[in-house]
Amino acid sequence: MQIHMNNHERMLKSLQMTEMDTPLSTPCNIQICEVTCDSFRIMWDMTPEDTARATHFFIDLSRKESRNPNRFKHRDVPTKLVAKAVQLPMAVRGHWFLSPQTEYCVAVQTAVRQPDGDYLVSEWSQVVEFSTGDYAMEHLQQLLDKAKGSAGRLLKLSVFYRNQHPDYFDFVRSECGGLMCPALKDCSGSHGSPINGKLHGVFFSCNTEFDTAYHYVVLVLAPIGSEGDTFCRTRLPMLDLASNPFLTYTDPQGPGEEPLYYHASDVILELLFTEPVHLDQGAVEQISGHHQLMSLTTANAKKDPSCKVCNISVGR
After folding, report:
1. Looking at the structure, do residues 48 and 13 belong to the same domain, yes or no?
2. Please, are residues 24 and 50 in contact by the beta-carbon 8 Å criterion?
3. Neighbouring-strand partners of residue 63
4. Do 104 and 120 sit in the same domain of this protein?
5. Parallel/antiparallel/unpaired status of strands 183-184 and 200-205
6. In this structure, are 93 and 145 located in the same domain?
7. Digit-coded pLDDT (tens) for 111-141
8. Which is nearest to 161 in space by CA: 278, 271, 301?
9. Is the Cα dihedral 174, 175, 180, 183 positive or negative?
10. Beta-carbon-side half-sphere exposure of residue 301 (alpha carbons within 13 Å)
């Protein structure tokens, strides 16, 4: 009887060792869902045997290489995550400083932790690419609150201007019937802005002198009921044109009087108007002041991630 029990124990131990040594299958059919600016959920297919055995998941995440890297590149952080096996899909948030509107590559392994502390691991899955989303309204509100703190006193505004080369205005007259047509917003400013690469508009600058201004603020002006208005209502915080710290408007007080505009003095303020603007609504002439913005000087310019005024923390 004693011999029989020992043989049985040896058989059980042999079966256990065989099961532990059985290779794990490679995860397949990787799926990414519920993507936000700072999180995502991931799932993949495993055999029932591997699902029962797996104790841990290894996830390897990296930014997709860009041909035009941001010169203000964030410091790289460890890309591999070891997580205890959970029911899929698995939420990934906070383990990395995920950036919005950024392309990533991800691959996974399944693993079984063995008694000696080592891991039996599967082969890496195929690499899947995905892009994180735009800032949510709550993030934009945080940026707005920071911008309000930098706005400074209001100065009277005499002109909205487009500092373009004369050839641009000649082209508008000859080829566009005098209409300055909306163009697609570039990727400058906040990397997670929901208007980057999605909203069309005509840019105007407000400041003619800003020797000490450093921070940019972009306001979108969209007529009620317009396509731009519909786009922005669910994506951007709304400001009151009569009482906000960046740009105010007051109706003419009497016949022959002009409306009054005031702009924030301590930020570089730009206005994106979502409808065409005819040259006849203004004048093509030289304006006075120092450091007027050239329209292309800020094209696709990224803000400095070390600036505590212009950045918010997400995914932490």
Report:
1. yes
2. yes
3. 104
4. yes
5. antiparallel
6. no
7. 999 998 888 999 999 999 999 999 989 999 9
8. 271
9. negative
10. 9
Domain coverage including residue 180: 137-281
Report the C-alpha gap between 220 and 199 in whole angstroms: 10
pTM over 0.90: no
Summarised one tens digit per residue, pLDDT across range 67-93 is: 554 433 434 444 577 788 889 999 988
One-letter amino acid at 100 equals P
Query: Based on the structure, what is the number of domains in the chain?
Result: 2
271 and 142 fall within a common domain: yes
Task: Give every strand in the sheet of 90-93, ordered side by side.
Answer: 28-33, 39-45, 90-93
